[in-house]
Amino acid sequence: MDLNKKKIVLTGASSGIGKEILKQLQQYDVKIIAVGRNISKIPEVEDKIIPFACDVSKKEEVDKLFDFALETLGGIDIFIANAGFAFCESIEEADWGHIEQIFSTNVFSPIYSVEKMRALNKAKKYSVIITCSAVSEMPLPGYSLYCSTKYAINGFGRVYEHEARDNEIISLVYPIATKTNFFKNAADKAPIPWPMQEADKVASSVIKGIKNEKRYIYPSKYFAISRIFTRVFPFITTIYVKIQKNKFDKWLQYKKSIL
Asked: Keywords assigned by UniProt (predicted)?
């Protein structure tokens, strides 16, 4: 897909991977609605970037985003559903609102956006890119709710591929741990899995994937290869998860020590 002249919506554009995607998209002749809860860090660039404040965890605000895009751009060719967050925690009590909060942002919002894009574009060619995660296929102790949201998105995307029409390109992106404030925001001194990659590498992989109309985008060659090996040799996953669990257990001890 040629990016030039395309009308794009990018969520989670104020930080991390989204910020890097926004930066790299500017080299093309595009118009972008850059979405974030706090848009103070999103640059407004005439005829290119339009910041838009939106809480994508709320249906009404996603509806307003689409209405704004139609009014401002006249349509949406590419929707990049990048917004998402994690909790690093030990689940100790039942909290429906806590679960709903993360699922509304990480699962309901991107799936609803896919439905909105289909209804909007009918037979017109379009693309939706959803930031999934390597943890959609690899357990990460301490991040059970976050992992479950990514398992859900992975399942949706892999089934929807077989339901997609000829004019629809639904792509999933599988970053490994990325050097952003993601884990810092998950919890104080949250355990960080290995390996890690730079956000600009993820962004460049996303843009390349869009241009090549890839259904599955793997920014890390390590993960692309390891996911095959772990199916043949499942004990590799067992060893990896045990290492991450040890990190999580030490973090829990740290948390108790400062209480």
From this structure: Oxidoreductase
Residue 40 one-letter amino acid: S
Strands of the sheet containing 7-10, edge to edge, are 49-53, 31-36, 7-10, 78-81, 126-131, 168-173, 216-217
- What was the pLDDT predicted at 194? 87
In the structure encoding, which two tokens stand for residue 205, read together?
């992989």
- Angstrom distance (rounded) from CA 45 to CA 38: 17
Please indicate, yes or no, if residue 81 is contained in any of the structural domains.
Answer: yes
Asked whether residue 237 is assigned to any structural domain, the reply reads yes
Is there a domain that residue 2 lies in? no
Q: Residue 75 in contact with residue 9, Cβ under 8 Å?
A: no
CA 239 to chain centre: 27
Query: Which whole number is the average pLDDT over 111-138?
Result: 96
CA distance 126 to 190: 38
What does pTM read for this prediction?
0.95
**Domain of 239, in residue numbers:** 7-258
Among residues 110, 101, 15, 23, which one has the least CA distance to residue 65? 110
**Mean of pLDDT over the chain:** 95
If you ran DSSP here, which 8-state letter would residue 200 be given? H
Query: What's the total number of domains in the chain?
Result: 1
pLDDT digits (tens, 9 = 90+) for 100-122: 999 999 999 999 999 999 999 99
- The answer to the question of residue 1 being in a domain is no
Q: Which two tokens stand for residue 42?
A: 């999103």
Crossing angle of helices 59-73 and 109-121, in 10° steps, is 40
- Residue 2, number of CB atoms within 10 A of its CB: 9
> Please, what sign has the CA dihedral across residues 17, 22, 28, 33?
positive
